[in-house]
Amino acid sequence: MAVLWPTARGFAARLIRWHKRHGRHDLPWQNTTDPYRVWLSEIMLQQTQVATVIPYYLRFLERFPRLADLAAAPVEDVMALWSGLGYYARARNLHAAARAVITQHGGRFPHDPAVIAQLPGIGRSTANSIATFCFGAHAPILDGNVKRLLCRAFGIEGFPGSGAVEKRLWTLAAELTPARHGAIYNQAQMDLGAMVCTRGKPRCETCPLADTCVARATGRIAELPQAKPRREIPLRHATLLVLLNDNRVLLETRPPAGIWGGLLSLPELPEGADAQEWARRHFPCRVVAVSPAPTLVHAFSHFRLHIAPLRMQVEPAPHAMEAGRQWLALDKLAAAALPAPVRRILEETASAERVRDDEGQDRDRGEQH
User: Fold this and answer.
1) Per-residue exposure over 22-34, b if at least 16 CB sit within 10 Å of its own CB, e if not
2) What's phi and psi for 159, nearest 5 deg?
3) Which of 54, 101, 102, 362 is deepest in the core (most CB within 10 A)?
4) Would you place residue 362 in the very low, low, confident or very high pLDDT band (cuts 50, 70, 90)?
5) Residue of 129, 140, 328 whose CA lies nearest to 245
6) How many CB atoms lie under 10 A from the CB of residue 361?
7) By the 8 A CB rule, do 260 and 88 touch?
């Protein structure tokens, strides 16, 4: 038997009316029922804002206009296009799911939300969203925006990421989903959460639910939804070797699992190891000069990483390059699959190398005169 929520009456109708006048209607992934395009947007929008996603989305479709193009591409090409967007497991799963659609579903994207949810990297809410927008399914969604909206509108206590609270939210979301216009309703929920019922400084005066919102009536807008229980975020340290030779830098492909999985990165110096000796032994090379570079701190979801780059001018001994390693010209960084902090390190390195080359040319001209 369905639970009767005190503010549920007319909930969907209010949101649909609001969306018609105030919602977003012209985003690049709207006004289409192509599951590939909708799915791509759903994955890119996880943990990432719309303004950040749009240029990545457009570049991705330009390179891989169809799901079959994505499935046929090397994963390295996919990672290169994803570089800078973060949460790189999304890109690996996207590629794996595209191949699964080709091999397991004959190239046709499945229509059933339960089947869609079995593809790599697709959870229940994303599967329901794809099925709703593309195939007319009657299915609730529960992304971060919707969780926040429901917690405030109905005064739901507890951290929404906990099992018990999430289960309660799924029950509520299912009961609120209208029998008709499900796609418009789901889009309205996401838009209202993103544009009005925001995490900070919500625009309650423009909200279509203002007169029934429990959080507003009880003065608890800032408290709901309840935040994740705080825990100390650990700080880790890493020394990355920037091995330079003739305006090239040595890069390694990261293992598929773990941070920056599958991306190109700088070799990481083991803790306690002597940098010059370790470099000579593992590459091999002759170290000509060593200079520290500016440090930086990069935040991940569960820890912060303090990165100390160490620039080393080297003369590599002639040898066959091991699998997974390559020399990359510093003027070719744009197309490389690099994590954001590594790209920043290398861009600063390239700038420093240009200055060093200019100074050397000035000295040469001075000696000639």
Assistant:
1) ebeeeebbeeeee
2) -70, 120
3) 101
4) low
5) 328
6) 10
7) yes
66: left (phi over 0), alpha (psi -120 to 50) or beta: beta
Please answer whether residues 226 and 157 qualify as being in contact, where contact means their C-beta atoms are separated by less than 8 angstroms.
yes
pLDDT digits (tens, 9 = 90+) for 132-160: 999 999 999 999 999 999 999 999 999 99
Question: pTM, whole model, 2 decimals?
Answer: 0.83
Closest CA to 339 of 273, 243, 252, 269: 252
Average pLDDT, the chain: 92
Task: Supply φ then ψ for residue 289, to 5 degrees.
Answer: -155, 150
Phi then psi for 313, rounded to 5 degrees? -75, 125
In this structure, what token pair is assigned to residue 295?
């440090």
DSSP state letter for 180: S
Tell me how long the chain is: 369
Tokens of 62: 């330009």
CA–CA dist 288, 312 (Å, integer) = 7
Which distant-in-sequence residues (6+ apart) come within 8 Å of 337 by Cβ?
A: 76, 79, 80, 82, 83, 262, 263, 264
> Which pLDDT score, from 0 to 100, does residue 335 have?
86
**Are 107 and 113 contacting, i.e. CB atoms less than 8 angstroms apart?**
no
d(CA 260, CA 85): 11
Q: Catalytic residue at 347?
A: no
The neighbouring-strand residues paired with 291 are 311
Q: Cα–Cα distance between 141 and 126 in angstroms, integer? A: 7
Catalytic residue among 42, 166, 271, 347: 42
335: exposed, middle or buried (Cβ count in 10 Å: 0-12, 13-18, 19+): exposed
Reported as type and span, the H/E element at residue 315 is strand 304-316
Report the candidate in 77, 65, 67 with the shortest Cα–Cα distance to residue 105.
67
Full 3-state SS string of 73-101: CCHHHHHHHHCCCCCCHHHHHHHHHHHHH
